[in-house]
Amino acid sequence: MRVLIVEDEIRLAQTLRDLLEMERYTVDISHDGENGLDNALSGIYDIVILDVMLPKLDGFSVLRRLRQNKQTVPVLMLTARSELTDRVEGLDCGADYYLTKPFEPKELLACIRALTRRQPELRLSNTLSFGDLQLDLDAVTLSCGEKSVRLSRREFDMMELFMQNKQSVLTKEHLLLKLWGYESNAEDNNVEVYISFLRKKLDYLRSSVRIKTIRMVGYCLEQ
Hints:
By secondary structure, the protein is α/β, with parallel strands linked by helices. Helices cover about 40% and strands about 25% of the residues.
């Protein structure tokens, strides 16, 4: 699951990244509103954590433009201001929840879990299924019948994305952005390497599920 943090306080942004990465989220950071808006409009994020007071473009403006562009990604707003009018404005702009600084890490994580549960394609339980495969989101294992295999973090993130999207075709560009992010130097070959790793895991499990290559387009799961 990929999270975008839009926060100009560098130390806080890094602390939030460390906290979320410990919970197995993939995190990108933007330190100003314009860059945050550009990243959020990509549509690759499962949730956006958005500060109100930002350089170049404030959080309320970022949120308004997101919603004007029909982006429905859950947005958790952060602010050092506790006035009722600020909270009301944020919610009216399209925020899904509002946290006032300082906040407890456990509260932030609970908010993220609650917001992502509202999206039917995201984690409604601790497993995802496709065909004869089961992906355990807590144990980070892929199983078929009585056989199971532990996945690396990147393998897990890729298989989770495939299983969330069922038989939809995922392009290499989408996989690169979703799994590696904008700041990465990863290329098409990186996607191909992990597709190969996952295919070997599927062969080991003797699953009827395969990762199909759609020439010049991308990949999808098929039985």
